[in-house]
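Subgroup meeting minutes
Present: P.N., E.W., G.H.
Scribe: E.W.

1. P.N. recapped why we're keeping a running log of single-chain structure predictions: easier to compare across weeks, and new members can see raw inputs and outputs side by side.
2. G.H. added today's entry (315 aa).
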Amino acid sequence: RKLCHEGITSGFTLAHETCFDQGEACSVMRFIENGELSYIQQAPNWLDVKSPSMFFEMSHALQRKKNRPSVISTPITLGQYLSEAVLWVPKWDHAGALLARYDSTMLNLDALCFEKVITREVAAYSVAVEYAKRFVAHLNRIKRPCDLIMEPVPDRILEEPATQDRSHYIFISHFKNEAGTEATLLREMLQGMIREDASHPACYMLDPVFVDIENLNNLGDVKKAVQGSDNILLLLTPGVFHRPWVLVEIGAAVMHGISIVPAIVQRPDMIFEYPDENFYTSLRQGRALKPEDLEVLAREGVSLEDAERAVRAVC
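Output recorded in log:
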């Protein structure tokens, strides 16, 4: 009610009048109440068009030319809306022009008023933030800016986004003594790439790439981080499958159906070899791990059979 009372006004446009021009700063989202309008993009020499009647004369003339510039005209009628982006991005300039073909009325939602009202309502604000993230990601996938988004934001993005229940997009599992430096460098590189791509599903995560650089001493916290990740990047080094923490991490990933992507770390002084049956036998019998490492697995409820299944799932 507050939004309707404070933020919405009614506007009337006469036939052949221009509502807004291409490149003009936008401040309201428009809902068509009645009438008929045309939304036009890539019209030539807009700044030279001095009147609506001149626009229609020019557009008709262009249609008769064989080598006319690309002009896309979309009819806008009752129930349609334009410039939703002004609600969700810091600054929006109209990507086309809107002209009335007949007398038309519109409801105008002021973007600044929308922001003030929505931020006062905690529950509504939370929903709006989540929607805005997905709207902007969808907007960035569209090839050219447009006030009229012809393809609505897909329901799957709104209802079940990839990042909805996740804290991390990638969890980097590794043996610190052998690949600690590589894990840190990969985190910086991958996180930078994600941050630069506004359409990436993890762009808005607080910590899209997780590495245990904090030296967490609680495996329970590490398992929560694994379960809160979309993917596990496992750095393969000679001793990685002899580390109980790694076995717990990939075991949790396998249990919860989280994708594991193995990557071999190559250095002249370090060669990784895939496990053979001798290794699996040794692991199953407990000979591949130190007594204290076996205690870690037991404490975390990971059996040697579970550890073997996890390694086999990766290799």
